[in-house]
Amino acid sequence: MTDSYKAINWDAIDDQIDKATWEKLTEQFWLDTRIPVSNDTDDWRTLDTDHQWVVGHVFGGLTLLDTLQSQDGMASLRKDTRTQHETAVLNNIQFMESVHAKSYSTIFSTLNTPDEIDEIFEWSDTEEFLQKKALRIRNLYHDDGNPLKKKVANVFLETFLFYSGFFTPLYYLGHNKLANVAEIIKLILRDESVHGTYIGYKFQIGFNQLGANAQKELHDWMYDFMYELYANEEKYTHLVYDQVGWTDEVLTFIRYNANKALMNLGQDPLFADTADSVNPIVMNGISTSTANHDFFSQVGNGYLLGNVEAMSDDDYKLY
Ligand SMILES: [Fe+2]
Ligand SMILES: [Fe+2]
After folding, report:
1. Is 198 one of the catalytic residues?
2. What is residue 307's predicted lDDT score, i.e. its pLDDT?
3. Does the record bear Metal-binding in its keywords (predicted)?
4. CB within 8 Å of 86: residues ≥ 6 apart
5. Measured over all CA atoms, what is the biggest interatomic distance in the chain, rounded to whole angstroms?
């Protein structure tokens, strides 16, 4: 510990990705309270109770994961930053994770009764497979001896574990239902896309500095961890989706996103599924929401900076 304290200087950037990410995240800032979710109440009443149950409970699961990111995730990553600007970016991400976690409550208070809301939170605080993934990630976040494993856990959560839940609003969006709920989810997804690629990029810097043996060890651990999470995710998906018959489609979607998570970390995909395997209605929901979904797609290939797309009217269409 030195005797001086260093002021952050944004005119002397060590890593241009920090600055580009800060600009991207602040440009796409949003708040749940600006989306008129109450316009979806007519659509909501057309859903039968099984489908309403799925919507409520996948959002309960997503609330838990965004709570984990806002309370533990970013605080844990902040212990291992390379630059002061990275700390600033993580501060931004942490606040947005709180916005994400809160936005599900905005949806619940519009669509669900107080008793239903209580039941959803009781479920998400106790459901076996949901708790298993949350606690597995939380424990890695608190293992300060393994900073690169924290980043793997973070990217697996951001780019993989959220997607069993994201499937439902994207599916409804593709069927012209719950458009305002979907708008919130698309804004969350747009954020998670940047978060996953940014943390993945920071992971790759550290990974590339390891020796061959350490890289191999971490690589093997990462794939074992992915298999473990996927096995748990299969059970979670059956539990949530069997009643509406969407399980197989959701599993395809999450395998596709598991590959994206591994690619964010600079690793090879694990599953055979590609974008073409996924229900096109759901894929369409992703692509329309996130014109900048692949903003950092070049980061994994030699850390080239992606081109920032100009904001268009589309970015503000519901505001
Ligand atoms: Fe989030
Ligand atoms: Fe995130």
Report:
1. no
2. 44
3. yes
4. 15, 18, 202
5. 65
3-state secondary structure of 242: helix
Q: Token pair for residue 161?
A: 């574990």
In contact, 70 and 101? CB cutoff 8 Å: yes
Q: Which residues of the chain have pLDDT under 50?
A: 288-308, 318-319
User: Which domains are seen in the chain, by residue range?
Assistant: 16-316 (1.10.620.20)
The ligand minimizing its distance to the Cα of 104 is: 1
Give the distance (Å) from ligand 2 centre to CA of residue 136.
17
Q: Find, among 309, 291, 294, 286, the residue nearest to 263 by Cα.
A: 294
Give the pLDDT score at 150: 98
H/E stretch holding 126: none
| DSSP classification of residue 291 | T
**Cα distances (angstroms) measured from residue 98 to each of 93, 215, 247:** 9, 34, 29
Smallest-distance ligand from the CA of 187 = 1
- Determine contact, residues 249/167, Cβ cutoff 8 Å: yes
Active-site pick, 5, 104, 141, 241 = 104
Report yes or no: 91 and 26 within 8 Å, Cβ to Cβ: no
Q: How far apart are CA 227 and CA 56, in angstroms?
A: 27
> Which residue bears the tokens 């598991």?
258
Amino acid 304: pLDDT: 34
